[in-house]
User: What shape does this take?
Amino acid sequence: MEIKINIPEGQKDTRLDTVICRFVELCSRSMAADLINSNDILVNDIKKKPGYKVKTGDLITGAIPGPDGNAAAVLPENIHLDIIFEDDHVIVINKRAGMVVHPAPGNFSGTLVNALLFHDPAIKNAGEDKIRSGIVHRLDKDTSGLMVIAKTKTALNFLQKEFKQRRVKKKYLALVFGNLSKDRGEINLPIGRHPVKRKLMAINHEKGKPARTIWKVKERFKTACLVEAVLKTGRTHQIRVHFYAIDHPLVGDLVYQPRRHRKKKSIAPRQMLHSWQLGFRHPYSGIRMSFKAELSEDFLQTIALL
Assistant: This one.
């Protein structure tokens, strides 16, 4: 069930988890706390703690699972998937730009999870979190390219451990502004939440987590470079934040961009970032598998403009 609660004067200074269980029938305070901690419930589009004291005018949004444990918003939808590989254990897809990976406030339909549940309803059993059924890793909404999805709980657990142990190989292609002075390099800067804009990430030397990106130039243009980027860590928005930090932001990125450029008309319809190659061990056979997804049409058109 999708919720949207505007906090009235009489509820101010009440704990967030308490407010939710008061407004939503059959939602206990412990369930509310779990949903808050898993980012399924936000306050003014920002993550808060269950003990956050709400203020008059706060807008609480999110999704509450129904009695059967399934979030009512996560329904099967007949949405085309570009499937690169599939067997009884995993699906490898080429995600199109513009598709959100799983339901969240503001995007409760049209997501990859909605499409997966239509393609194979059994995926709903891959993991305890019904909103993220089968999801092992994520790509930003406007990032295209390869993702692996688990079809069973066993496959999900195996692949999550592989990602945690850095055994999964990921290569991206990105268009970055400017002329990089070297042909290859490494960005080793910690990433954490932005100190003010809590929905964004930033280089954070005090509280950030280690983040390492290795890159090399594949092609140079007059005003940009096509770069291959290999992730050695998996931080949120890592490539976008790292290249912004070294003054070579991604073409088409409207967020991690110098303020003077944000209002200029972009030659790209979205951030030019593509999950190009993906390699992992199969969760059943243990055999190493590798996949490649060619650049999408909008990426190629942007390159042509350059």
Notes: The first strand starts at residue 2 and ends at 6. The chain has a mean pLDDT of 90. The radius of gyration is 21 Å.
